[in-house]
Design goal:
By secondary structure, this protein is of the alpha+beta class. It contains 3 helices and 7 strands, in the order E-H-H-E-E-H-E-E-E-E. The chain has a 7-stranded mixed β-sheet with strand order 1-4-5-6-7-2-3, covered by helices on one side. Strand 5 and strand 6 form a beta hairpin. The relative contact order is 0.22.
Length: about 120
């Protein structure tokens, strides 16, 4: 029998690599954010896929400079032993002005191998 349910947990219990990524992303620190990723990591954001560190760094640089916004952590769930979802509320000068985004992380040997960001 497989248990496909998610388990809510306190954000302080997030894997360290996820906390480092989120902090770096929110602080527009591209080198620190990219250091949390596997060399062949994949990020999917806004319907676009970014594969590998160079493509992800270009996306991070653009994503962190295109708009001004604040983030508020509103939830975290463990989706499996190597997966978790973090939900953040964003407010800023992007189209629509507010959005709740789900950051779905997959980990591989202590680094982020896959990240999907979607409402």
């Amino acid at each position: 029998m497989t248990d496909d349910t998610t388990t809510p947990f306190d954000a302080t219990d997030l894997p360290d690599v996820v906390k480092r990524y989120l902090k770096a992303h929110n602080e527009h620190d591209v080198p620190t954010a990219s250091a949390t990723l596997t060399p062949d990591a994949t990020v999917i954001d806004d319907g676009r896929t970014y594969q590998g560190i160079p493509a992800i760094e270009r996306w991070l640089d653009r994503a962190t400079s295109e708009y001004s916004y604040t983030t508020t952590l509103i939830g975290a769930e463990r989706d499996g032993p190597d997966r978790c979802t973090v939900t953040q509320h964003l407010e800023g000068d992007f189209p629509g002005g507010t959005v709740d985004l789900h950051y779905r992380f997959t980990l591989d040997q202590g680094l982020i191998s896959h990240l999907t960001i979607a409402p």
